[in-house]
Structures are given as C-alpha cells and as structure tokens.
Design brief:
- The chain is an alpha/beta fold.
- The chain has a single domain (about 1-135, about 175-225), classed as Spore Coat Polysaccharide Biosynthesis Protein SpsA, Chain A, CATH 3.90.550.
- The protein has helices spanning about 30-40, 50-60, 80-95, 115-125, 185-190, 215-225, and strands spanning about 1-5, 20-25, 25, 45-50, 100-105, 130-135, 145, 155, 170-175, 180, 195-200.
- Strands 1, 4, 5, 6, 9, 10 and 11 form a seven-stranded mixed beta sheet that branches. The protein has a two-stranded antiparallel sheet with strand order 2-3. A two-stranded antiparallel ribbon has the order 7-8.
- A hairpin with a 5-residue loop joins strand 7 (about 145) and strand 8.
- It is globular and about 60 Å long.
- The relative contact order is 0.17.
Length: about 230
C-alpha cells in the first residue's frame, strides 16, 4: 500500500490557523489533498492532526482521519519524521502493509500531482529510501556574506571573491512540499538530507515557502499570476 500522510497540527503561531486558512478561495490544505488525489498513486490519503476543525475540513475534501495525533507530537518543537513515523506505526498496528509513505505538507499550494509521480518514480528507479523535490538558489551561495549588528560583512567563502559566478557549482535547496520515503526509513528516523535520498528538480517559480503573512500574500499573487487556480 502507498499512503499519503499530511501533517496538520492546530497550533501554528506565526500564521494562526495556517493549515486551514483560505488561500485563493480554498483552505490551503485542500491543495495538498487534491494533488494527492490527482496523482492516483495512493491507496489512502491520511491527515494527522490534533485539531477537530482541521480534521473536519480535511475530511470534507476527501482525506481520512483514522486517528488523532497525540499532544506530545503536536507542539512547536516536534520534527516531521516522528510525526510520520507515528502515523505509519498506527496504520501498521491496524493491519496495513505499507510499501511507501509520502509526507505532504499542508501548506504547499504549488504542489502538482505530476511532481509527486516523478519523485515516486525516482524513489523506485534509484532504489533509495527517500525522494523529494529541490530547486536552485537564485544567487550563488558561494558569494554569500554574513552581517553583524554594525552592518559589517564577511564572506562565508572568501576564496570565491574573484571566482566568476558561472564557474561556481550550482546549489540546491529543499522545496518543502513533500517527501517520499520507505516505511523503514521513516521508522528508523533516518535523515532525509543524506545519501539515502534522491531528488527531482523543480523550477523556482513553482516554489514558495510560506512562513509569514508576507510569504502568504506573495504566494497568493504568484498563484494567480501562474493561473494555477
């Protein structure tokens, strides 16, 4: 069985009720559920939450809520892997045999079914334990600087001050939309950013991290410009 697991706790601080806040006309979690449905890869689409309202809204868009997430896995400091591991353990305890589990974040409105499919194919083709999307940085990280309170700067890699941008190695970062993984990887707590993972590359215009209200506004504008609705 392949299962999509969408973590969506109720206690978001920087953007209150973030996981169900309306985004371009729908609760933002609906986009993750819809992409999982459109991929046609999943036998079950499960939302793990500690919040009754989130559970009700997720269910109204077609997701399952077969259990409620315990409080000890619902605070600000709980990482993703233990949450997914708990969901897998709970499903397995109820007799499910899981071949692959995809963690899909609830606040990923740019997520596309075709990317979920591509990453799954990469997971299988490369025989890896994780697969997820990345994108390139818009500026060479090797020319980056750090700044102190007085405004003084220092290069992280001063040896590259005279290196031409085109000669610097391309750098990538996690898109923050979803992660495929084997149940063994999730349950063992194996790091995702390691040689256990393979990746697919997405264009930067389809990537938007949403941590602040400013991020939210920008993402909605980009969504409408790209005519994703």
């Amino acid at each position: 069985m392949r299962v999509a697991i969408i973590p969506a706790r109720g206690g978001s601080k920087r953007i209150p009720r973030k996981n169900i806040k309306p985004f371009a006309g729908l609760p933002i979690i609906a986009y993750s559920i819809k992409a999982a449905q459109e991929s046609k890869l999943f036998d079950r689409i499960v939302v793990t939450t500690d919040d009754d309202e989130i559970a009700a809204i997720a269910h109204s868009f077609g997701a399952e809520i077969p259990f409620m997430r315990p409080k000890e896995l619902s605070d600000d400091h709980t990482a993703t892997i233990p949450v997914i591991a708990h969901a897998i353990q709970t499903l397995q305890a109820n007799g499910e045999v899981i071949d692959a589990a995809c963690c899909i974040y609830a606040t990923a409105p740019f997520i596309r079914a075709q990317d979920i499919i591509s990453a799954y194919n990469a997971l299988i083709t490369h025989n890896k334990q994780y697969a997820f999307p990345v994108t390139t940085f818009p500026f060479p990280i090797w020319r980056g600087v750090k700044r102190n309170d007085d405004g003084d700067i220092e290069m992280f890699w001063p040896q590259h001050f005279v290196t031409r941008s085109q000669d610097l190695k391309e750098a990538y970062h996690d898109v923050g939309q979803f992660y495929w993984g084997t149940p063994e990887a999730w349950l063992s707590g194996k790091p995702i950013f390691s040689d256990a993972a393979t990746t697919i590359v997405l264009p930067r215009h389809l990537v938007q991290d949403i941590d602040t209200l400013e991020d939210w506004t920008r993402a909605e504008l980009m969504y409408k410009v790209l005519s994703l609705s």
